[in-house]
């Protein structure tokens, strides 16, 4: 496991780097078999907007075999943000581990083919370190879509901590979007051409 730490609007002190490494060593102890050959990308940033109370942001992305586990947490203190994100990642890795176990033991299906999922490519567009005005595209992501059932897509959605997940529906061969509703259930968007 390799931890890549980057900072934005923050000085990455030795104490801060050591704290991040200590927190993720705990993950290594419990989930080494899952993450030992993978990179963990940690981005620490401070929002410069004075109206934002929780301006210390920690984003973590783990690229697993064809899967992406991502979490972002913010608080008034960077160390607290790191604590929050590591706790959330531990829960997400536990879900991922359970899902692998269920799929191998109970369904007899193979794990997703890592060749079907491309590496996530991110590009951030910032002006002087601050996001652009609301209404403009400030972040772009490109990734290969993989054929999934809507049920499998909900499992992927739970792992990445986003509100929606775009995938190719394996039965209809159409691009679909699964999203999390406020009531805790999921919604499915199917395009009609």
Characteristic key phrases:
193 residues, 4-stranded mixed β-sheet, alpha+beta, globular, Double Stranded RNA Binding Domain
List the helices and strands and how they pair.
Elements: E1 2-8, H1 14-35, E2 39-46, E3 56-64, E4 67-75, H2 78-107, E5 121-124, E6 126-127, E7 130-131, E8 139-142, E9 147-148, H3 150-160, E10 164-169, E11 175-180, E12 186-189
Parallel strand pairs: 1-2, 9-10
Antiparallel strand pairs: 2-3, 3-4, 5-8, 6-7, 10-11, 11-12
Helix pairs in contact: 1-2, 2-3
Number of helices: 3
Q: Low-confidence stretches at least 5 residues in length (pLDDT < 50)?
A: 108-134
Mean pLDDT, all residues: 77
Range of strand content: 25-35%
Helix/strand order, N-terminal first = EHEEEHEEEEEHEEE
Beginning-to-end CA distance, first to last residue: 45 Å
Total beta strands: 12
Strand order of the largest sheet: 1-2-3-4
| Helicity, as a percent range | 25-40%
- The 3D shape can be described as globular
The major β-sheet equals: 4 strands, mixed
- The CATH C-level name of the domain at 2-112 is Alpha Beta
CATH architecture type of the domain at 2-112? 2-Layer Sandwich
What is the oligomer described by this structure? single chain
The CATH superfamily of the domain at 2-112 is known as Ribosome hibernation promotion factor-like
Task: Kindly identify the CATH topology of the domain at 2-112.
Answer: Double Stranded RNA Binding Domain
User: Radius of gyration, Cα only, in angstroms?
Assistant: 18 Å
Alpha-beta content class: alpha+beta
């Amino acid at each position: 496991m390799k931890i890549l730490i980057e900072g934005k609007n923050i000085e990455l002190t030795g104490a801060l780097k050591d704290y991040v490494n200590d927190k993720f060593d705990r993950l290594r102890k419990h989930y080494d078999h899952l993450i030992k050959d993978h990179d963990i990308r940690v981005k620490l940033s401070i929002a410069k907007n004075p109206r934002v109370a929780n301006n210390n942001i920690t984003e973590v992305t783990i690229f697993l075999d064809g899967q992406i586990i991502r979490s972002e947490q913010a608080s008034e203190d960077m160390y607290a943000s790191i604590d929050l994100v590591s706790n959330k990642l531990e829960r997400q890795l536990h879900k991922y581990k359970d899902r692998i176990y269920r799929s191998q033991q109970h369904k007899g299906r193979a794990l997703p083919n890592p060749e079907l999922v491309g590496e996530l490519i991110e590009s951030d567009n910032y002006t002087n370190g601050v996001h652009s005005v609301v209404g403009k595209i400030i972040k772009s992501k490109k990734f290969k879509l993989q054929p999934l059932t809507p049920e499998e897509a909900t499992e992927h959605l739970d792992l990445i901590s986003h509100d929606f997940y775009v995938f190719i529906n394996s039965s209809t061969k159409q691009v679909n979007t699964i999203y999390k509703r406020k009531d805790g259930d999921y919604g499915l968007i199917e395009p009609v051409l």
